[in-house]
Amino acid sequence: IMNGQNIPDAWDDGAANGTDGVRSAFTNLNIAAQPFIPNINAAKFVPAARKVEIPEEVVQPEVAVPEVVEMTIENSPNAVPEQVESKEMEDDVDVKDEVMNEEVEEVEKVDVKEVEEPPLSPSLINKEEHVNVVFIGHVDAGKSTIGGQIMYLTGMVDKRTLEKYEREAKEKNRETWYLSWALDTNQEERDKGKTVEVGRAYFETESKHFTILDAPGHRSFVPNMIGGASQADVAVLVISARRGEFETGFERGGQTREHAMLAKTAGVHHLIVLINKMDDSTVKWSQERYDECKEKLTPFLKKVGFNPKKDIHFMPCSGLTGANLKESDYANHPWYTGLPLIPYLDNLPTVSRSGAGPLRLPIVDKYKDMGVIVLGKVESGRLYKGQQLVLQPNKRKLKVLGIQSDEVDTESAIAGENVKVRVDSIEEDEISKGFVLCSPDDLCSTGTLFDAQIAIIEYKSIICAGYSAILHIHTCIEEVVIKQLICLLDRKTGEKKKTRFVKQDQTVIARLQTQGPVCIESFKNFPQMGRFTLRDEGRTIAIGKVLKVLDESD
Ligand SMILES: Nc1nc2c(ncn2[C@@H]2O[C@H](COP(=O)(O)OP(=O)(O)OP(=O)(O)O)[C@@H](O)[C@H]2O)c(=O)[nH]1
Ligand SMILES: [Mg+2]
Q: Does the beta carbon of 217 sit less than 6 angstroms from any atom of ligand 1?
């Protein structure tokens, strides 16, 4: 039986430790390296109403399952919630009212003359549905190999190219790695066999367009992984079933657990757990091994806040042979009768897209290419050519010169799309990762001081006021200090009590302060910009949601 208290001792093996590690991993990023193939109009994926009947574990008729609620972490490590209660958000409101009485800060309005908003063209509305899928999981689990195999199976890479990769990989004594080369495009990644930057590619089924975000598994590149997860609608957690590999990836620490937790914090609602390397000689498509992996993972995934009956689907596969990706391979897995990966993705419920609300585009990257280009996912609202925008937190006005989706110019984009935007009247060094493009008449809030509800997931020692960590909120990374622990929160009873310290598996309400101003919203108002992760010494230690952004004078 899994127990929260005896899990975490192996988080600290591995290379980069310390905030310096995180920082340098970032500064060393070559932001212009990957070919960016953004998607058009990817919609927010809401798994609630399943339109398709999906066999196996997922179907669960008798209970009316409440709405998905972010971050349900239990106080007691042993008690895992059967059902996620939607009442939790109400709890938060209570807490908020009691803890803080201040009025919400008035957001300053900036007066900019706007180009008239063009109507949504029918072609934009009828575009095929776009879904962003991020592949996450421990180093060497097979994420890039599966991504490459999918591209091959859907005709995105041809056989000749793959044969060329196979020859070249052989010369480097890495012959089994050739499939991953479709996504690991730079030399370092191919030489070392490790993804560094989030690789991007796309594939199409009859009804949908999918963007693959291939995240790095190595612990040094977790910040890159967070960037990838923040752009995803669906996450595929890749697990190696190979003897020993599953164990290092999960049981004795490793990125399996961290990635699942980060994906949840990033707002991914639906998780596909792909048990990979089923062809391996230590596995041989053994149902026993498959079930073992599944049983060990389930309690942790519950603890992170995924509802196993509703939000998670397990399936076996082999990235190397392609089995159960596009087509089932019943000879090998008579015991798995569910859909293979690609049809499963294709059958996920359709989502409605909307351009409603003020524009919010957190910037994930920027570079210069005959002007300034910024990259990111539109989290709300609508973006169009000629639009006047304001960059927060520095309140710089700018104008949209052009928008690209899938390397194709487009007139406008709406929430859910990953875009490349050419902007005017601003210098590249005035823009940073984590800044947010906003509608001039409705800016996002910014600040350095905020109150938050924080669940400590993995930390060996106690945490007191004065503790500092690295805050990851949407695409923003900033140092943060816990100024004050306001109260401990018993998530079962809702009881609050004063405390001087907090430890693993507890939930606390605290006041936090960042060094510089960040774009931040309360979770209640705008979840995408109100949930965060705290990392320390290269490890994720807590997840949280913003209750209130405070005035500097508070
Ligand atoms: N036997 C077997 N080996 C596999 C399978 N999938 C991947 N591998 C091998 O596992 C190794 C790692 O594969 P990658 O695809 O690079 O793994 P990754 O998860 O992308 O790794 P990082 O990007 O470093 O996190 C390679 O040697 C692959 O050939 C599989 O289904 N079966
Ligand atoms: Mg990889």
A: yes
